[in-house]
Amino acid sequence: MTPRFDIQIIGERINPGFKSTKALFETSDIAGIQALAVKQADAGAVYLNVNIGARAFTDPAFMTEVIRAIQAVVTLPLSFDYPSRQVQELCLSCYDQERAGGRLPIVNSITEHRWELMQLYRLRPFQVIVMASERVVDGVAAGNKTAADIAGTARRAALRLREEHGMAMHDIFVDLSVSAVVADTEGLGRATLDAVKTIGSDPELAGIHMMGGLSNIGQQLPAKAADGSDLKHQLENAFLTLAVPHGFDTVLGTPWRRYEPLPEDNYVLNAYRHFLEQTGSNALRAVRKLYRR
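Given the sequence above, the corresponding C-alpha coordinates read:
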Protein backbone atom coordinates (compact mmCIF):
# COMPACT_ATOMS: atom_id res chain seq x y z
CA MET A 1 0.00 0.00 0.00
CA THR A 2 1.29 3.46 -0.92
CA PRO A 3 2.10 5.47 2.23
CA ARG A 4 0.01 8.54 3.03
CA PHE A 5 0.81 11.60 5.08
CA ASP A 6 -0.58 11.75 8.58
CA ILE A 7 -2.39 15.03 7.94
CA GLN A 8 -5.89 16.44 8.28
CA ILE A 9 -7.58 18.18 5.38
CA ILE A 10 -9.80 21.24 5.57
CA GLY A 11 -11.93 20.92 2.45
CA GLU A 12 -11.48 24.05 0.34
CA ARG A 13 -14.05 23.62 -2.42
CA ILE A 14 -16.97 25.68 -1.02
CA ASN A 15 -15.32 28.82 -2.31
CA PRO A 16 -16.07 31.08 -5.30
CA GLY A 17 -12.45 30.75 -6.38
CA PHE A 18 -13.58 27.54 -8.06
CA LYS A 19 -15.67 28.36 -11.15
CA SER A 20 -18.05 25.46 -10.67
CA THR A 21 -18.69 26.49 -7.05
CA LYS A 22 -19.13 30.14 -7.99
CA ALA A 23 -21.88 29.06 -10.37
CA LEU A 24 -23.64 27.27 -7.49
CA PHE A 25 -23.66 30.52 -5.50
CA GLU A 26 -24.82 32.61 -8.46
CA THR A 27 -27.80 30.30 -9.04
CA SER A 28 -28.50 29.70 -5.32
CA ASP A 29 -28.13 25.97 -5.97
CA ILE A 30 -28.43 24.72 -2.39
CA ALA A 31 -28.65 21.06 -3.47
CA GLY A 32 -25.42 21.48 -5.45
CA ILE A 33 -23.66 23.05 -2.47
CA GLN A 34 -24.85 20.17 -0.28
CA ALA A 35 -23.57 17.62 -2.80
CA LEU A 36 -20.16 19.34 -2.77
CA ALA A 37 -20.10 19.21 1.04
CA VAL A 38 -20.94 15.49 1.02
CA LYS A 39 -18.31 14.76 -1.65
CA GLN A 40 -15.59 16.39 0.45
CA ALA A 41 -16.72 14.62 3.61
CA ASP A 42 -16.78 11.25 1.85
CA ALA A 43 -13.27 11.92 0.49
CA GLY A 44 -11.87 12.32 4.00
CA ALA A 45 -12.10 16.01 4.90
CA VAL A 46 -11.93 16.68 8.64
CA TYR A 47 -13.32 20.23 8.38
CA LEU A 48 -15.11 22.11 5.60
CA ASN A 49 -14.10 25.66 4.78
CA VAL A 50 -17.05 27.90 3.87
CA ASN A 51 -16.76 31.07 1.81
CA ILE A 52 -19.60 32.28 -0.42
CA GLY A 53 -17.76 35.40 -1.53
CA ALA A 54 -19.14 38.93 -1.54
CA ARG A 55 -22.70 37.66 -1.22
CA ALA A 56 -22.06 37.07 2.48
CA PHE A 57 -22.02 40.86 2.92
CA THR A 58 -25.06 41.64 0.77
CA ASP A 59 -27.28 38.63 1.48
CA PRO A 60 -26.90 37.39 5.07
CA ALA A 61 -30.03 35.26 4.70
CA PHE A 62 -28.31 33.24 1.97
CA MET A 63 -25.21 32.88 4.14
CA THR A 64 -27.38 31.46 6.91
CA GLU A 65 -29.18 29.17 4.49
CA VAL A 66 -25.91 27.78 3.15
CA ILE A 67 -24.54 26.99 6.62
CA ARG A 68 -27.72 25.27 7.74
CA ALA A 69 -27.99 23.34 4.46
CA ILE A 70 -24.40 22.08 4.77
CA GLN A 71 -24.93 21.02 8.36
CA ALA A 72 -28.11 19.21 7.35
CA VAL A 73 -26.09 16.75 5.23
CA VAL A 74 -22.69 16.47 6.95
CA THR A 75 -21.55 16.34 10.57
CA LEU A 76 -18.11 17.89 10.06
CA PRO A 77 -17.17 21.12 11.86
CA LEU A 78 -17.01 24.17 9.62
CA SER A 79 -14.36 26.82 9.06
CA PHE A 80 -15.69 30.28 8.25
CA ASP A 81 -13.36 32.08 5.86
CA TYR A 82 -13.96 35.82 6.28
CA PRO A 83 -11.93 38.76 7.64
CA SER A 84 -15.17 40.58 8.55
CA ARG A 85 -16.35 40.57 12.14
CA GLN A 86 -19.94 41.11 10.99
CA VAL A 87 -19.92 38.03 8.75
CA GLN A 88 -18.08 35.90 11.30
CA GLU A 89 -20.59 36.83 13.99
CA LEU A 90 -23.43 35.73 11.72
CA CYS A 91 -21.69 32.44 10.87
CA LEU A 92 -20.95 31.63 14.51
CA SER A 93 -24.50 32.46 15.58
CA CYS A 94 -26.10 29.94 13.24
CA TYR A 95 -23.47 27.18 13.58
CA ASP A 96 -24.98 24.06 15.17
CA GLN A 97 -22.22 22.65 17.39
CA GLU A 98 -24.34 19.69 18.47
CA ARG A 99 -24.82 18.71 14.82
CA ALA A 100 -21.00 18.73 14.47
CA GLY A 101 -20.60 16.25 17.31
CA GLY A 102 -19.76 18.97 19.81
CA ARG A 103 -16.74 20.14 17.81
CA LEU A 104 -15.91 23.82 17.64
CA PRO A 105 -16.07 25.88 14.44
CA ILE A 106 -12.96 27.59 13.07
CA VAL A 107 -12.63 31.34 12.54
CA ASN A 108 -10.44 31.80 9.46
CA SER A 109 -8.53 33.99 9.97
CA ILE A 110 -6.94 36.55 12.26
CA THR A 111 -3.66 38.42 12.02
CA GLU A 112 -1.80 40.60 14.48
CA HIS A 113 -3.27 43.54 12.59
CA ARG A 114 -6.79 42.06 12.57
CA TRP A 115 -7.09 40.93 16.16
CA GLU A 116 -10.54 42.42 16.75
CA LEU A 117 -12.11 39.17 15.52
CA MET A 118 -11.09 37.63 18.85
CA GLN A 119 -13.73 39.79 20.53
CA LEU A 120 -16.21 37.23 19.19
CA TYR A 121 -14.69 34.63 21.51
CA ARG A 122 -16.85 36.05 24.29
CA LEU A 123 -19.95 35.04 22.33
CA ARG A 124 -18.92 31.41 21.88
CA PRO A 125 -15.63 29.49 21.88
CA PHE A 126 -14.07 28.54 18.55
CA GLN A 127 -10.83 27.37 17.03
CA VAL A 128 -8.83 29.91 15.08
CA ILE A 129 -6.51 30.16 12.09
CA VAL A 130 -3.72 32.70 12.56
CA MET A 131 -1.93 34.08 9.51
CA ALA A 132 1.81 34.11 10.18
CA SER A 133 2.57 35.85 6.89
CA GLU A 134 2.38 39.33 8.39
CA ARG A 135 3.23 41.13 11.63
CA VAL A 136 2.62 44.60 13.00
CA VAL A 137 5.45 47.14 12.81
CA ASP A 138 4.73 50.58 14.32
CA GLY A 139 1.01 49.93 14.04
CA VAL A 140 1.16 48.95 10.35
CA ALA A 141 0.90 45.48 8.81
CA ALA A 142 4.20 44.28 7.33
CA GLY A 143 4.82 41.13 5.30
CA ASN A 144 7.07 38.47 6.80
CA LYS A 145 9.94 37.33 4.59
CA THR A 146 12.27 35.54 6.99
CA ALA A 147 11.91 32.35 9.01
CA ALA A 148 12.53 34.30 12.21
CA ASP A 149 9.71 36.76 11.47
CA ILE A 150 7.27 34.02 10.46
CA ALA A 151 8.01 31.85 13.50
CA GLY A 152 8.12 34.88 15.80
CA THR A 153 4.69 36.04 14.63
CA ALA A 154 3.26 32.56 15.11
CA ARG A 155 4.70 32.32 18.62
CA ARG A 156 3.48 35.75 19.74
CA ALA A 157 -0.02 35.10 18.44
CA ALA A 158 -0.28 31.62 19.94
CA LEU A 159 0.91 32.71 23.38
CA ARG A 160 -1.40 35.72 23.29
CA LEU A 161 -4.36 33.45 22.45
CA ARG A 162 -3.43 31.21 25.36
CA GLU A 163 -2.85 33.99 27.89
CA GLU A 164 -5.69 36.36 26.96
CA HIS A 165 -8.36 33.85 25.96
CA GLY A 166 -7.32 30.59 27.60
CA MET A 167 -7.14 28.81 24.25
CA ALA A 168 -5.49 25.40 24.12
CA MET A 169 -2.68 24.99 21.58
CA HIS A 170 -4.62 22.27 19.79
CA ASP A 171 -7.34 24.84 19.00
CA ILE A 172 -4.84 27.08 17.19
CA PHE A 173 -3.89 26.69 13.51
CA VAL A 174 -0.97 28.68 12.12
CA ASP A 175 -1.25 29.35 8.38
CA LEU A 176 2.25 29.55 6.96
CA SER A 177 1.29 30.74 3.45
CA VAL A 178 2.97 28.40 0.99
CA SER A 179 4.34 30.63 -1.79
CA ALA A 180 4.21 30.11 -5.56
CA VAL A 181 7.55 28.86 -6.85
CA VAL A 182 7.24 30.86 -10.09
CA ALA A 183 7.23 34.16 -8.17
CA ASP A 184 9.61 33.25 -5.35
CA THR A 185 12.93 34.95 -6.02
CA GLU A 186 13.53 35.91 -2.37
CA GLY A 187 13.70 32.49 -0.72
CA LEU A 188 10.20 32.63 0.79
CA GLY A 189 9.69 28.88 0.38
CA ARG A 190 12.88 28.17 2.27
CA ALA A 191 11.90 30.66 4.97
CA THR A 192 8.52 28.93 5.39
CA LEU A 193 10.10 25.48 5.76
CA ASP A 194 12.68 26.82 8.23
CA ALA A 195 9.83 28.41 10.22
CA VAL A 196 8.05 25.03 10.32
CA LYS A 197 11.15 23.53 11.94
CA THR A 198 11.41 26.37 14.48
CA ILE A 199 7.74 26.23 15.47
CA GLY A 200 7.74 22.44 15.59
CA SER A 201 10.69 22.39 17.99
CA ASP A 202 9.31 25.03 20.39
CA PRO A 203 8.12 23.24 23.57
CA GLU A 204 5.75 26.10 24.46
CA LEU A 205 3.90 25.55 21.19
CA ALA A 206 3.48 21.79 21.58
CA GLY A 207 0.14 20.71 20.12
CA ILE A 208 -0.27 23.67 17.76
CA HIS A 209 -1.35 22.91 14.19
CA MET A 210 0.71 24.16 11.26
CA MET A 211 -1.12 24.44 7.98
CA GLY A 212 -1.23 26.06 4.57
CA GLY A 213 -3.04 26.15 1.25
CA LEU A 214 -0.97 24.10 -1.18
CA SER A 215 -2.65 25.12 -4.44
CA ASN A 216 -0.54 28.31 -4.57
CA ILE A 217 2.73 26.44 -4.98
CA GLY A 218 2.21 25.61 -8.66
CA GLN A 219 0.43 28.83 -9.59
CA GLN A 220 1.07 29.96 -13.20
CA LEU A 221 2.97 26.77 -13.99
CA PRO A 222 1.72 24.28 -16.56
CA ALA A 223 -0.51 21.61 -15.03
CA LYS A 224 1.69 18.91 -16.55
CA ALA A 225 5.43 18.52 -16.81
CA ALA A 226 7.05 17.70 -20.15
CA ASP A 227 6.72 13.96 -19.41
CA GLY A 228 2.97 14.31 -18.81
CA SER A 229 3.12 13.94 -15.03
CA ASP A 230 1.04 16.13 -12.71
CA LEU A 231 3.66 18.75 -11.95
CA LYS A 232 1.58 20.92 -9.62
CA HIS A 233 0.50 18.00 -7.46
CA GLN A 234 4.04 16.66 -7.33
CA LEU A 235 5.18 20.06 -6.06
CA GLU A 236 2.50 19.96 -3.36
CA ASN A 237 3.73 16.55 -2.27
CA ALA A 238 7.36 17.74 -2.40
CA PHE A 239 6.55 20.55 0.04
CA LEU A 240 4.72 18.15 2.35
CA THR A 241 7.55 15.62 2.19
CA LEU A 242 9.86 18.27 3.67
CA ALA A 243 7.36 19.88 6.07
CA VAL A 244 5.29 17.07 7.62
CA PRO A 245 8.18 15.47 9.57
CA HIS A 246 8.56 18.77 11.48
CA GLY A 247 4.92 19.13 12.54
CA PHE A 248 3.07 20.53 9.52
CA ASP A 249 -0.16 18.57 9.92
CA THR A 250 -3.06 20.34 8.18
CA VAL A 251 -3.80 21.14 4.56
CA LEU A 252 -6.39 23.53 3.19
CA GLY A 253 -6.98 21.56 0.04
CA THR A 254 -9.07 19.28 -2.13
CA PRO A 255 -9.76 16.08 -0.18
CA TRP A 256 -9.78 13.73 -3.17
CA ARG A 257 -6.25 14.69 -4.22
CA ARG A 258 -3.80 12.05 -3.10
CA TYR A 259 -1.24 13.59 -0.76
CA GLU A 260 1.65 11.20 -0.27
CA PRO A 261 5.38 11.40 0.53
CA LEU A 262 7.76 11.34 -2.41
CA PRO A 263 10.71 8.90 -2.46
CA GLU A 264 14.18 10.33 -2.03
CA ASP A 265 15.05 9.72 -5.69
CA ASN A 266 11.96 11.54 -7.01
CA TYR A 267 12.99 14.11 -9.63
CA VAL A 268 10.50 16.81 -8.58
CA LEU A 269 11.45 16.48 -4.90
CA ASN A 270 15.12 16.96 -5.66
CA ALA A 271 14.46 19.74 -8.15
CA TYR A 272 12.33 21.48 -5.50
CA ARG A 273 15.15 21.10 -2.96
CA HIS A 274 17.52 22.69 -5.48
CA PHE A 275 15.05 25.52 -6.12
CA LEU A 276 14.80 26.25 -2.39
CA GLU A 277 18.51 27.05 -2.29
CA GLN A 278 18.25 29.63 -5.09
CA THR A 279 17.30 33.30 -5.20
CA GLY A 280 16.86 35.88 -7.92
CA SER A 281 17.34 34.79 -11.53
CA ASN A 282 18.80 31.47 -10.38
CA ALA A 283 15.45 30.61 -8.80
CA LEU A 284 13.62 31.37 -12.06
CA ARG A 285 16.07 29.22 -14.02
CA ALA A 286 15.50 26.37 -11.56
CA VAL A 287 11.74 26.61 -12.13
CA ARG A 288 12.10 26.58 -15.93
CA LYS A 289 14.34 23.53 -15.70
CA LEU A 290 11.82 21.79 -13.46
CA TYR A 291 8.86 21.88 -15.83
CA ARG A 292 10.87 21.33 -19.02
CA ARG A 293 12.13 17.98 -17.76
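DSSP finds ten helices and ten strands in the chain. Try to locate this feature in the C-alpha coordinate string yourself.
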